[in-house]
Amino acid sequence: MEAEAAQLAHVRQFVEEIAREAHLDRERMFDLKVAVCEACANALEHACNQSAFLEVCAYLDEERLTFVVTDRGVFRRARASRGPVLRRGLGLPLMVALMDEVVFARTPEGGTQVSLSVALPPAKITPENA
After folding, report:
1. What span, in angstroms and rounded, lies between the C-alpha atoms of 105 and 78?
2. Residue of 39, 40, 8, 36 lying closest to 24 (CA atoms)
3. Which of 76, 90, 106, 111 could form a disulfide with 72, with the two C-beta atoms 3.0–4.6 Å apart?
């Protein structure tokens, strides 16, 4: 997608569609939307002044749902702040608090990739899938 804040509405819709497909409840769906959009907002603010595109992908398997946000900006390792928090800088702690797993990595091109995963509830056995 184009690296513009206006695109975040499309990201929320994409996350919601995939979360429904994975049979997540509303609370978990909300957590995913917040975390994925926060990762996108961070990329827009910190990396996309050097890149015009942001990629958001979803991977679904039997045990987990993972969204991967990739930018093509300059990778900077996440750092914890030791000073007072001043109305900013809460995106990373928020992502970690809402997700079961958050992984930050450098892409081969030098950008940043953020993987956000949630464990899926066990499948219910019904007469149709027994």
Report:
1. 10
2. 36
3. 111
pLDDT tens digits, residue range 11-57? 999 999 999 999 999 999 999 999 999 999 888 876 655 556 789 99
Looking at the chain, list the stretches that DSSP marks H as alpha helix, in order from N- to C-terminal side.
Answer: 8-21, 26-46, 91-98
Place of tokens 């109305």: 87
Q: Which fold has domain 5-119?
A: Heat Shock Protein 90 (3.30.565)
Task: Please report, for the chain, the start and end positions of each structural domain, with discontinuous segments joined by +.
Answer: 5-119
The band of 122, judged by pLDDT with boundaries at 50, 70 and 90, is confident
